[in-house]
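Tokens in:
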């Protein structure tokens, strides 16, 4: 997911939130309008309205205000929520496939960033705060929206965000495990050498082309954690030494 920063110079209070406990989802209420058109509206209207993000008709994402800052979008929830406005092709408020997928991905990313649980209040509708029919596709018909009586669209969205969040957490766990395995392998391949030269330069990289960082003169024993050709990297982090002047122990 690519996010384009197009920060507002108007309707941006520049106030950082002291807490973030929810991601608030909205619809723009202007069928067929683009993400950039809505961003530009926020930047010029005399009304005090804005949003942290806008998701467009083709799945593009614009950041209008950094998500650590307050945006004027969700009334009394502005102080604790990140707002996402969402574009839609018609008056039903239903989001196109690309828009929906991007909205799910963005919401999941923000939930991960702020350690929120989507189905336990971590993701809310504008409707949940003020009763406004917003986003229309996620508000039941009895309340003026186009969702089913039991909120099928909204429940499905929350589940999709939860699933996306789980995937992100699994990917992070896999990355961490790979990093840990790599570190263990590096330590497992470490070995000791005794310096046999009376003076052995320590260089910043594995060749004589690199700068000299120091010099070993004690014929001591050192730990090598990585090798390139006949050069070894010192565990201390001091640099590299030529193994031609060392004896492996």
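Residues out:
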């Amino acid at each position: 997911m690519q996010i384009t920063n197009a920060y507002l110079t108007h309707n941006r209070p520049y106030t950082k939130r002291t807490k973030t406990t929810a991601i608030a989802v909205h619809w723009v209420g202007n069928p067929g309008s683009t993400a950039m058109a809505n961003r530009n509206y926020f930047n010029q209207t005399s009304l005090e309205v804005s949003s942290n993000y806008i998701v467009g008709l083709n799945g593009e994402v614009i950041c209008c205000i950094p998500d650590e800052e307050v945006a004027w979008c969700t009334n009394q929830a502005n102080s604790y929520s990140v707002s996402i406005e969402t574009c839609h092709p018609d008056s039903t408020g239903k989001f196109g496939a690309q828009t929906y997928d991007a909205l799910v991905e963005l919401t999941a990313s923000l939930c991960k960033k702020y350690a929120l649980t989507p189905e336990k209040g971590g993701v809310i509708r504008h409707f949940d705060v003020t009763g406004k029919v917003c986003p229309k596709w996620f508000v039941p018909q009895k309340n003026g929206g186009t969702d089913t009586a039991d909120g099928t669209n909204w429940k499905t969205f929350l589940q999709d965000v939860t699933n996306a969040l789980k995937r992100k957490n699994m990917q992070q766990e896999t990355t961490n495990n790979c990093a840990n395995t790599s570190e263990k392998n590096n330590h497992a391949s470490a070995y000791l050498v005794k310096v046999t030269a009376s003076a052995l330069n320590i260089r910043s990289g594995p060749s004589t082309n690199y700068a000299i960082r120091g010099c070993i003169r004690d014929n001591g024993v050192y730990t090598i954690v990585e090798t390139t050709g006949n050069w070894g990297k010192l565990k201390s982090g001091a640099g590299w030494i030529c193994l031609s002047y060392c004896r492996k122990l």
